[in-house]
């Protein structure tokens, strides 16, 4: 059985978990306190980051590379389109969420509110929290623009781009940092992807000291 070393609220780990679950690949989840720099974990990934996936006799790091490997090795169901142009758009949006959105929003909200406390790094920086709360509005508006023109973020079919975005939004929703009233379009998209069986494991996550809001696992929120 595959093993995934992860942190529950990490959007990068959640993206891999969604891919594994969608493809019905059984996987043992192992929580890894990567910030403690355990020597055994550093041997698995000298970069000291999660996720790390052990599968098919290999040990893999970097969520984007892991997801593309899973897509090539386990192509059913398809999460990447066939055409070069469409694949480019999926990769562009994955980069958007894992780079720009993460830097401007997730790191300012989830990392400040949760990770700092879990890691013993003190209290949230209020200026970062304010910046993240402001930046997410821009991203919600951009997603609305995309979804007004497409069925899913990258086109007419659900792709890894949707999983990348949903991984971030699910972590933010866990700490009630998404204003779902700003965009019914994005709310409907999230409700649609949240209702997939692949999402069940994520919705069952519990972070000690941080209970999720009542609506977190509600499919009709």
Distance between the termini: 34 Å
Q: What would you say the CATH architecture of the largest domain is? A: Up-down Bundle
Give the C-level CATH assignment of the largest domain: Mainly Alpha
| Shape descriptor | globular
> Measured on Cα atoms, how large is the radius of gyration?
17 Å
Helix content: 40-55%
User: Residue-averaged pLDDT, rounded?
Assistant: 96
Show unreliable segments: none
Q: How many structural domains does the protein architecture include?
A: 2
Strand order of the largest sheet: 2-1-3-4
Structural class: alpha+beta
Oligomer: single chain
How many H/I helices? Answer: 8
Tell me about the biggest sheet?
4 strands, mixed
Subunit structure: Homodimer.
Domain GST C-terminal: 83-215
Domain GST N-terminal: 1-78
InterPro entries: Glutathione-S-Trfase_C-like (IPR010987), Glutathione-S-Trfase_C_sf (IPR036282), Glutathione_S-Trfase (IPR040079), Glutathione_S-Trfase_N (IPR004045), GST_C (IPR004046), Thioredoxin-like_sf (IPR036249)
Short synopsis of the structure:
The protein is of the alpha+beta class. The chain has eight helices and four strands; from the N terminus they run E-H-E-H-E-E-H-H-H-H-H-H.
Which terms would index this structure?
Glutaredoxin; globular; Glutathione S-transferase Yfyf (Class Pi), Chain A, domain 2; 221 residues; 2 domains; four-stranded mixed sheet; alpha+beta; 8 helices; single chain
